[in-house]
Structures are given as C-alpha cells and as structure tokens.
Amino acid sequence: MHQNNMTRADFRKQIRARRKQLSDAFQQAASEQIIRQLSHLPELDTSQHIAIYLSTDGELSTHALIEWLWQQDKSVYLPVIHPFSTGQLLFLRYTPDTAMVQNRYGIAEPRLNQQLILPTRQLDLIFTPLVGFDASGHRLGMGGGYYDRTLEPWFKSRSGAKPLGLAHSCQFVERLPVESWDVPLPKIVTPDKIWSWE
C-alpha cells in the first residue's frame, strides 16, 4: 500500500510490527544510545520532576533510562489511568519500592496512592510514548488520546510540563495523516538523533 493511501490504523499496524521484530540485543544497544543522547539535552539538566512510561509492545526500552534518571537524583513519575475522569492520566512518583498493579491494558502502573500524585502542571518533562512520528514532528499514538489530553495545556500556552518523544529510528515515516487536534511535539529523541521542531 502506498503511504499516501494509508490510514492511521494502517501506519499503527505497520510500525508496531516493525518495532516488534527488533532483537533483544538491538533493544539493549538502543536503550544505552538513548541515554547518551539525553545526557546532552539541556532540558534534562534543568528538570527535576520527570514523567516517563514503562516500555511495552516493542517500544524503546525505558528501564535503563529510569535507573539512569534515579542516579541523576531526578524524581521519576509514571502515568496511571485516572479512576473516574475518562481518558485522563495521573502521574505518580515512582521509586524502586513503589507497589505496582496492572491496568486495564495489562501495563504495570503504580498502585493509586493520593500521596504519590504530582499535578501534571508541576512536572518539568513528560517523556511521551508514540507509535510513529513524521518529518513535521507529528506523533501517532495508540489511539486512546490519553497523551493528547494530558499535553493540551502545554500545546495551548507552552507552559507547564514539556513533552519529549522517545522512539526507535524505524518508527519514522515521512508523513502521517493528521487530525485537527494533532499538535507536533517540540522534540523527539531516537538512539541516533535529536529531532527538534522548536
């Protein structure tokens, strides 16, 4: 199928399949390279409260990155699906001792504990998962819209937590089909490059 005729669902399927074929050794090397890339990012120096996600489905592995952030004395937060605000995320502090549960998608998340919640506007950086991205910085997510809603305040006012996409190089496509609510990310980091649209 020619890329121009592909729907978002087509792209999602194709890129997820591509990503799942990456070997463990490739994933390991990519996670080390991503830390090297991020160590040069000025945003990381100036950020203390950093949201990230636990990788799944062939995503770029974030486990070594989380360990590295802890070593840098950063406070790390993970997304938790909001128990009653549909489609919203909460961010809870994550440490090596955090009690974890599985959410409805089978992804591990911190057990809901009000004392561990940090309001999203108080985060400095939100590492944002994505299925695919294009030459304009548009992000293709899993389709649930969780991060679109979470990042809306930043897109509207450029204040609060700054989003930073993480991806394998194979998740790049020249041009994604774009919806009216799609807003490009300011930066996406791959193991071999820092893409910036700022």
TrEMBL record:
GO terms for molecular function: 5-formyltetrahydrofolate cyclo-ligase activity. It is an enzyme of class 6 (ligase). Its EC number is 6.3.3.2. Its cofactor is Mg(2+). It comes from the Bacteria. Belongs to the 5-formyltetrahydrofolate cyclo-ligase family. This is 5-formyltetrahydrofolate cyclo-ligase.
